[in-house]
Design goal:
By secondary structure, the chain is an alpha+beta fold. The chain has helices at about 40, 90-95, 125-135; strands at about 5-10, 15, 25, 35, 55-60, 65, 80, 85, 105-110, 120-125.
Length: about 150
């Protein structure tokens, strides 16, 4: 006959069966469980939502919203949300303009990779994004195609 152990959570005082569904296991031993239940362990943990990105920037002299959170090796802002990393500029764009269409990428008209200002972001094709990289600085937003 299999007997289920009952454990009382030290935070909430509720008695629950000692299972993986109710308690986290300790790192030291496979057969030992922590003293607080999973429900109490999750309370107070910060969950990021897309709107939280608007708390993580400073405005520089060019009008760019410099992302102050984590950045990847290329200098793009990285926003951790729902157990995944997302490009901060994409989240900022989607908050203002809605979902990004399939096949489009987000181009920074200011050429500042850590900028999350929606006014500096534009959804374009990858080919257009690459073309804009080789234009002179004054032609980034105009339609002169590099002609002087």
């Amino acid at each position: 006959m299999f007997i289920m152990k009952i454990r009382t959570c030290k935070k909430c005082g509720i008695s629950k069966t000692e299972t993986r569904e109710n308690f986290y296991r300790t790192k030291s031993g496979e057969d030992k469980f922590r003293t607080t239940c999973k429900a109490c362990s999750q309370k107070g943990k910060k969950r990021n939502y897309p709107e939280d990105i608007l708390k993580k920037y400073i405005i520089n002299k060019n009008g760019c919203w410099e992302y102050t959170g984590a950045k990847n090796y290329l200098g793009y802002g990285v926003f951790y949300m729902q157990q995944h990393n997302y490009a901060a500029h994409r989240i900022s764009y989607e908050l203002v303009y809605g979902k990004i269409e399939e096949g489009l990428v987000i181009d920074h008209s200011c050429r500042n990779r850590s900028c999350i200002n929606p006014e500096h972001l534009e959804a374009v094709t990858q080919a257009e994004n690459v073309r804009r990289t080789w234009l002179p600085p004054h032609c980034k937003t105009c339609q002169c195609k590099g002609e002087e």
